[in-house]
Each structure stands twice: as C-alpha cells, then as structure tokens.
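LAB NOTEBOOK - FOLDING QUEUE
OPERATOR: T.R.
BATCH SIZE: 2
PURPOSE: Compare the predicted structure-token outputs for two unrelated chains run back to back under identical settings.
PRIORITY: normal
REVIEWER: second-year student, initials M.K.

ITEM 1
FIELD SEQUENCE / FIELD STRUCTURE:
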Amino acid sequence: MASTRNRGKLAYKILFWFLLISLAPMIFVGWHLVGITQQSLRKETLAMQESLAVGFSDTTYKYVTTFRNVLTETAGLEDFVSMNPGKQQQYLNRILQIHFAVLELSVLNDKGVEVLRIGRFLGPNPDMRDFKGEELFTGAMGPRGQFIGRLERFQGLYPTVTISVPILDQRAQPAKAVGVVAARVSLNGLSTMLAMEFPASGKSQAAVMTRDGFLIAHSDPREIYRPDARMPPEVEKVLTTQDNVKGGGEIALEGGKRLLGAFALIDKLDWIVYVQQPVEAAYQTAADMKAQIFRVLIWVVLFTVLLSLAVAGHITQPIRILKEAADRLGKGQFEDLPEVVTTNDEIGDLAQTFLGMSESLKEKTGELIHAKQELEKFTKFLEKRVDSRTRELKAAQDELIKKERLAAIGQMASVVGHEIRNPLAVINNSIYFIKTKLGTGGEPDAKITKHIKIIESEIQQANGIINEILTYSRQRELQLEKVRINDWLEEVLSVYPFPPHVSVDKIFDPANPTVEIDKTEMQQAVRNLVGNGVEVMPAPKGGKVTIRTVIPEPGWVRIDIADAGSGIPQDVLDKIFAPFFTTKARGTGLGLAVVRKVVDHHKGKVDVESTVGVGTTFKLYIPTTA
C-alpha cells in the first residue's frame, strides 16, 4: 500500500509556493529597506540633537559674554578709571537697574582689596574683602584680561557665575591696570531659555553643566532649584569623560530606560551643553514608518492570498470533483456520482481513466456483494448453531461440576462428620461420667468445673461446625409449604435465644404476603444472619437487630436483617458469600454460603449493604405466591 505520509491539499501546496515565490523577495527587500530607513532616521535624529547642542552652546557663551562686555565697557569709562568711588557707584547702580541677572558688583584696587561693593541683597555697609592671590583678581590683572568662573549657588538654590575684567588706564603708555571690576551674575536666564526651547510638553530635555558635574541650567527649572542638583550618574559619567568637542549616542540608565543624548563643549568656558530624549521618542518616526510598511505588507499579503486561493481553486476544482467521486466509489455509492468534467489536458485524461475504472469497479463490486451476502447467511447459520451448542455444553458442564463438587464435599462431610462425631460422643460420655463422680465426692474443685464447661462448649462448637458442613453439602428436594411471611418470622424469632444486651426491632409490612418455602432451610438461613448480627454487637455495649419485611415490587417480598455493628469493609464485602471464607478467628466460613444456597434454591436473591462504623443490612428477596 502506498504511503500517505506526504499527502496534502493541492490547493494549499499551490498557495504556499505561489506566496513563497511572489512575497518572499518583496518581504526581504521591504525588511532591508526598513532597516536602512531606521538607521538613516537615527543618524538624522542624532545629528539634529548635536546641532541643537552646538546652537545652544553658542547661545550660552553669548549670554555670559554679554555681561563680560557690559563690565568691560563700564571699566573703560574715563570717570570709572579715576577710581572715584562716588562715580563708580553711579555706574554700578545703573548696571543693577538695567541687568536684573546681576546680583552683586565689586571694585578692587590694584592690590586686590575691595574698595566698593553693592548688591541687591546687601546691607548699607557691607564688609570689604581681600582677593589678593585669588583667580578672580589675578585672572583679570593677568595676560588673559578677564575671569569667568567661580560657580556657586546663591542662597543654596540659584546658580551664579563670577565675572571680572581689569580697569585699564589708557592714558599710560602702555595701558596700565589700576583695578578690577567684578560681578556675580545669576544664570537662571539660561534655564528660562532652555525651558522655552525644550518645553515640558515635549519629550526632549536639555542642560548645561561643568566638567565636575555642577548643574548650571536645565530645561526643567525645578531640577536647578535642588541643593544637590546634578545630572543622573550614568549621563554625568559619559559627559565628564568626553574629549571631543561634540558627539552623541545612546545612554542606558538604571531600570532599563535608554536615552539618545548629544553634547557640545563650550571650549572657552569649559562648560558642556547636553540635549536628550527617550530612545522611543527619538526613533518614533522610524517606528511609525516601520508600522506603515508592515501595514502595507499585510494588505499585499492578504490580496496575494486571495488571488492565490482563486487561482488554486480554479486549478484544483476538477481534481476535487474527482476526489469526491472516488470517495463515493470507495463507500460503494455508484449512483448519483458528481459530474466529472473532461477538459482537454492531463486532468481530462485522468477523468476519462477514472470513468472507465468506476464502471469496471461497479460490475466487480456487484459480484462481490452477492457473494458476501451468501457468505453472511451461511456464517450466521453456523454462528447460531455454535452458540446454541456452546450454551448447552457450558450449562451441562457447570451443572456437572457443581454436582461433582457438592457430591465430593457431601461424601467428605459424611465421612468427616462420622469420624469426628464418634470421638465427640465418647468425650461427651466421659465428661458426663467425670461429672457424676465429682458430684458424689462433695463440692468439686472450681477449676475442674470450669475446664469441664470449656470441654462441653468445644464439643458443642465442633458439632455445630459438622452441622454447617453437612447442611451446605447436603442435596435434597425442597419441602415447600405456603406460609404468611410475617407469621413465620414471628415464630422463628420467638424461639431464638437473643442475649440480654441485644434488642430486637420487628417492622413488618401490613400486607403479610404468602410465600412458598422450605421452612427448615429458610429458618437456617434467617438464624445464620441473625446470629451474625448478634456476634458483631458483643456485650456490654450490645446493639439492636432489626428484622423488616418490605414489598419492593409486585411478586416479591424482601426480608431485611440489619445490625448496628462495625460494618464490613468494601474489600471484604465481595467475598463474604464464598464458601469457607471468614474473617472470624473461629468458624467454617459456610454460614453466608448456606444463606445464598438456600435463597438460590428458592429462586430468590441476596443483597447486602454495609457502612463501616454504622452497620450491615442483608436483604433476602423471595418470590411470593397467590
């Protein structure tokens, strides 16, 4: 038989190869173009951020040099060079009025000692300071002719920078520095300009900082007002270790967040301008373009799939019709076959061959069906004969085995009973003789009396065992008598020796139906069940035995014998009616076997229900009679 492991739908195969040939190159090229576009957009975004950083570095430098130029122009005035404190104070007050970013102004003499000091937050007579040897004085008096530095936080919040320029006496040849004018300038204006350029509603942020991490300005002014204002450690580490004038790239922060940052160095101030935005925002355009291309590809794929399905369906339609016709032929349906189209191609040739094959198959199948019907008739006849003979043989065999087994047990029981009862009778007579002799000699010894009773009890027990074996193995015809079931039970229970610790509850159906039973055998069955119930409720606790009659359905009466003992475990319950099976320390295991034999002999049945810890109920079903 040919292997069907590689069998598949032809339309799906055509669709697969059509998609592979048509879409694979397009998807590959599209993916490659998306990658190139993303790289280009990333480079463009980084270049834009570098451009912003460079542009704001120029703005920052111009912002600072504006105040330096104001000081230079003021220091070059002839009245100011005269070092007249009154004139100088007038000019300095004018600077404070015009430039609100200037917080404090000072004039130093050629020794570096402060001779004039005014400010927005100074008292009327501020202390004068000596700056001799400090860079604020030496830088302005030296070859550089200026000093821009000494970054501090005014009142612990606002960043400020100190600027100083020399006071040159142009009358001397060459010009001679006769002092220094210095200003403490607030840099809050830089943060204001950054906030306007990079508003909080946008994704980008910018900052100005020194190489030692001092945060000068930030597009979010709240960052500046913190006493310990600094950039994140990862950003600070990258910026403070750069040797290039400008640059940029991705920076990874703690928690997995990534930034795209660019920087530009303000070389003359040794400050750094930094611009950043989240990587997601920086590459948003690339992501949008990628998503748009994917959407286009999805529509192309869907259109191609639909077109491929249409083409594949057109190609495979005749083959599907042939397959449907072949399936019906395989099921033996030779009528109402679908109309096979014979086109002028290889599929048409296949259709012609199929039609010829179907006619031949129809003829051969008819012959096989007729032969099969004849064979089935003969097979059914043989099966019936075999089943009938098998049942008869099995019934005869079972009956023979049963009779042989009971005969063997009966023969064995008769021999054993005879051979054991004779010694028991001798022992019983001997006990009687011993008791007689002991009675004539006065009061017998208590221990001897006790052991005599034990011997008598054991003799009685042995006789009981012999009786059970003989009862089970005895085969005799039933001596049937019609009795009222309630009356008969009253008679049986009235002579049963119930111990004082066991109570009896009788619940009889008022109908009191008539049954036809062998009173001797049925009495033995009831006494066995009652005796078992008494045994499982020993003194002193005792319990109650319940005898009930019920009519479960017309034609039957049920005798329930229930006890309040410990119950029978489920694994034991299925074995209790087997001959010689017992869970007692002593006993033959024939009591319940006798019960089943008696009930079966009366064409009834026995059921048992038991719950561990609650009790057991035996149910005897006996057919009633009119």
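ITEM 2
FIELD SEQUENCE / FIELD STRUCTURE:
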Amino acid sequence: MATPRRGGRPGRSLIALLLVFVAVFGIVGATAQLQKGKKWTPELGLDLQGGTQIVLQPVVAGSSGAVTAQTLQQSVDIIRARIDGSGVGEAEVTTEGGQNIVVAVPGTMDQRQRDLIKQSSQLRFRVVLVAGAGVPTPTPGSTGTPSPGSSPTASATPKASATPKATSGKAATPSTSSAKRGLPQALLQATTTPTPTASPTPNAPSPKPTNASDLSQITPALEQEFVALDCAKTRAVQGSRDDPNKPLVTCSQDKTEKYILGPAEVVGTDIKDATAGLRQLPGGGTSNEWVINLSFNGEGTRKFRDVTARITSLPPPRNRFAVVLDGLVITAPQSNEVIPNGQAEISGNFTQASAQTLANQLKYGALPISFTTQTEDTISPLLGAEQLQRGLLAGLIGLVLVVLYSILQYRGLALVSIASLLVAGALTYGMVVLLGQSQGFRLSLAGVTGLIVSIGITADSFIVFFERVRDEVRDGRSLRAAVEGGWNRARRTILAADGINLLAASVLYLLASGGVRGFAYTLGLTTVIDVVVVFLFTYPMLALMARSRFFGGGHRWSGLDPQRLGAPAKVGLKANLGTIAGRRAAATGSSAAPAPSAGSAPGQLS
C-alpha cells in the first residue's frame, strides 16, 4: 500500500492568498482615492439606506386604447432590465394601483440614472431625410448653411445632386421665398422636383410617397418646423408626439444636430440583442475602437435588410438611419453596405462608457407605452439601522457558537478554524466593497443573511477536513502523513458540497427577484470564497502546524492525540507508528508469535 503523496510547499499557497488580499484591497483603496464618492465600506440597499423614488404615469398616444395590466408588466420588466444593465443594484420596480410604475433606487440618484429611467418611450428606427445644425436656421440673406450631417461613420456636409429646376405643386414654396432662405441644400432639393412635360396644375395634390425615404413627404409645415427648431429646447420634441406613421422633426440627444426623419420602419421589439465591445479585426484579435454589435430577430432582419438596401446608395444624409428614443435621436449612423443577416455594427468615436450606454438603450429601449414623471421623492430606509444591527448580532452569536464548538471538539485545532473564519470574513468584506465600487452591488438585509449562512458553510469545510485527518491518525499514521491523506479524501467532499451550494445559489438568483436575489448572490459569493480559503489557507496552515512539536508530537491539547482518538496503544509517533505489515498482523491476529523476552516461560505446544 503506497503512502499518501505529500503536498507541495504550503508556503506557496499562503503567498498566493496574500497576493489575492493585496489585489482586492489594493483595487478598493485605489478606487476610493481616485473616484469621487467611492469609499471603504459596502454600499447599502434600499431597505438599509433609503434612496430616490420616481412614479411614472403612462401616456397613451392617439386612440390606441387604455393601458392593460400586461402592457404595464412588460414595461416593468424592461425598466428593471435597463436599471440592472446600468449597474444599479437592489433597485425596485413595481406597479401602483394597476396604473403607475414606481421605481425606487438606493442611495442618491445621479443624472445618468435619472435619464435612464425617464427615457421610457418606444425605440424606433427612422431614415434621415434632412440634417442640419441644431440651432434655428438664420433666414436673412443666407443661401445655404452647411449641415453637420455627420455621424460616427458618416461623411461631412451633404451635397445636392442637382440644381432645382422647378417647384413642386405645393403652394407658396418657391425656392427663392423667405420660407426657404437659409435652409440646408438638401432641404432645398427635397422641396423641388424635375419639371414635368406639362405645367403642374394649381392646387394639385402632392405626389404620394413611394417609400419612407421619399423626399415628397416634406411639407411646408415640416420645413417651417425644421427652420424654427432650437435643439437647446429639447422638451419641445420629446414624449408621445412621436407618431411612427408620420415624418418627424427632432434633435439629437447632444443637441448638436436636428433632422427631418421618415416614418418608423424598424422598432425596438425587432432587436434581439445589443452589446458593446472592442472591434474584432478581420485577421483575428481586437482593436482599441469601441463599437456596438446589434442583432435583430427574424422580422427585424428582413426590415433592416430592406432599409439598408434602399438607403446605402443614397447621397448623405439620406444614407443614414436614425435611432429615436423618447422623441430624440440617440445615434444616426451611416449605412455603408447592405446588411442581409441581421448583424450590424455601429462604430464611431465611442468610449467604453458611451458604448455601453448606447447598447443598453438599444437593448432595453423598446417600451410598449410612453411615460411622464409624476413625482420624484427621497425615501427613508425601509428597515433602518436597528434591523441591520440585529442581523449583525445574530451573525456574531452564530460565530461565537461555532468558535466554542471548535474549542470543545478540536482543542488546539480550533486555532486553524478560527483563523480560517477570520480570513474568510476579511476576504468577503473586501469583495463586497469591491463589487459595490465596480458593479453597483448593494448589501440588503437579505444579503446580510446570506453572509451569516456562510459561517456554517466555512465551518462545514474545516470539520470535514479535520475529521478526515483524525481518521488517518486513528489508523496509525504520523500526523504529517495523516494531513496529506486526510486532505486527499476531504477535498473531494468539500468541492462536492460547495458545488451543490453554488448551484443552488445560481438557480435561486436566476429564478428569484428582489431581496431573494441578494441572498442568493452573497451565498454564491461566500461559497466561492470558502473554496479559496480552504485550499489556500486551512490546508497549508494545518500542514505547517503538523511539523511543530505541539501538534506533530500529538500533545493531549492539540486535538490530535493518538491515544484520545483511539489509535493502537503500541503505536506512537516516536516509534514511527510501526510498519504496515505489523499493523496488519495485529489486526488479523497472526499466528506468528513474537520472540519471548529474557526470563519468560517457553511456549507450549498443544
């Protein structure tokens, strides 16, 4: 029978654990120093800290009917996904009286979060007919104002392909009239048509648009609205006035550009997914350019293919496709080629933050109805400091009971279990703070409960390990061999138990909502930390202690005394615990008798 394989150097495992601590707390400290508002304490949830509550009231445009419970619930799910996608943890999104939506966010709500919640109308894709600077177009004596006409991938100023020869049949729209002075050249072209073979009949009806890119949709009223629009006053173009079946005059969110857009052709529900990432190079690898990868479902793929096939060959800015959210254009990229497979990429001068924000808007922007903000209030903690103190007191009582049990059951080995609990607690604290700084994780009372349960998980791990080691000592092995043999047997049990805990936490997190998800999150986190602590601290510490005289010599207070554990009486550590053959002979009652000692009576034959 081979002896258990000795483990590697325990000092290396302890150094690896030290590096983990340095990395975690180093990042926490650097973030607290460099980023305003970050601190060394965990972020608390709505029930412990309070926060901001916004009540959204549905707005039904036109004659689409009343808001149904199904539509309202769908809106709740999308708004919750938006908030979660932005990194805000422990937020609550509920309905109120079957009419309004109540959004409660922990802590102080910043402007980015507020805008994300309030941007709650449908997401629509519209082709660009005209683009211009985002300020009112000057009328006196101007013959043409260059349009920015540019997007992240667009070319510069749009150019007219031909000089207008005649006016359309619309009344009072001559190219030299005051109504058209100072308009972009593209708009001048849009309101004129080539001269037909016969003179147009006065008051003849306008030609019916053949598609959403047809410039005949631009009426004198749209021209006047475009000229007068000041994008510094975006409230005038936000909200439920965004009729998907009609052209739209609106602005970009950054207020630098204004547009006349065609009717909506693709809607937010046609989007399957939107993610931000670094651009993939054709030959493999990635570049330093942030892009948004957009994918459509079956219906959206067909629509997007038809639109890109139509607008790709058009002159700027009519080869651009604007994405409209809450009545404003969040992006208007240029179509460079026909996209038949529903996989599009939006590129431009994006940072990581702006790319992620745009991806979230595209992915979670398709609300079935529009909303207005009814109220916005600061709310007090739902539970408060007293409940948190009681929860922490319960955890402290549980920790003390575990320590007392360890001392009574394992004596000197209790030092290892207590130290393991302290190391696990410190690493858990650092990870909770780090996740709060980087991922928006907030600790609720349910999360605190998950941390308290983790005390039992860590205690289970070292109890399994200690009992395996003691079994090896009972079999007559030296303590150093017993530690290795016990670890080989215990680690499989520990990994199996922690794997089941992690699986349960994952399923609970995916299927539950609200505070239960906070419990599942902390339970899963502490389960992973338990594996790290057992492998990098508990086992190597016991391996080092086995080399000491107190533990290795089997002191009666070490918790590893062979006699107290029931090891064979003649087997001692100093005698190297005998041989395997000798122990086998003693166990099976071999007939081979030992040689008589001096002065003893000779043996008798029967």
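REVIEWER COMMENT (ITEM 2): The chain has three domains: 10-40+384-552, 46-119+375-379, 123-195+209-365.
FOLLOW-UP: none requested
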